[in-house]
Amino acid sequence: MRSRKPFLIFWPQYFDSKRSRSEGRKLPKNFAIEKVTTKEIATAAKRLGYKADVEGSFKYPKSWWDNPGRVVIDGKGKKKSKILLEVAREIRKIRGKG
């Protein structure tokens, strides 16, 4: 079993522009992205130099019925909120909207 200390968990729901804050979105509306996948999150994190793994069998507790999967990122001691914004910007860049 891996140590959870340096690892941060990112759910696609954190980035979803269609969700409210109470439904799980963690980003401000102007940074939120529509229909984000775990693969996109992992790709963006890897492009930023983080070690990222997709865990497909887990479900977000607030909406266990949809979009399974999460991404575990080695944060290298950075705050989760900072990494969240970096990853969102990188996803926008990958999609060509940044």
Question: What can you tell me about this protein's structure?
Answer:
The chain has 98 residues and is α+β, with helices and mostly antiparallel strands. The chain has one domain (7-95): 2-Layer Sandwich (Phenylalanyl-tRNA Synthetase, Chain B, domain 1), CATH 3.30.56. Helices cover 27% and strands 13% of the residues. The protein is built from two helices and three strands, in the order βαββα. The chain has helices spanning 38-47, 80-95; strands at residues 7-10, 52-55, 70-74. A three-stranded antiparallel β-sheet has the order 1-3-2, covered by helices on one side. α1 (38-47) packs across α2. The longest helix is centred in the last third of the chain and has 16 residues, at 80-95. The chain is globular. It starts with 6 loop residues before the first strand and ends with a helix.
Name a few traits of the molecule.
98 residues, Phenylalanyl-tRNA Synthetase, Chain B, domain 1, 27% helix, alpha+beta
CATH class descriptor name: Alpha Beta
* β-strand amount: 5-15%
Question: How can the largest sheet be summarized?
Answer: 3 strands, antiparallel
Percentage of residues assigned to helices: 25-40%
The fourth-level CATH homologous superfamily is Signal recognition particle, SRP19-like subunit
Q: Determine the mean pLDDT.
A: 89
Q: Compute the CA-based radius of gyration.
A: 13 Å
SSE run:
EHEEH
Per DSSP E runs of 2 or more residues, the count of β-strands stands at: 3
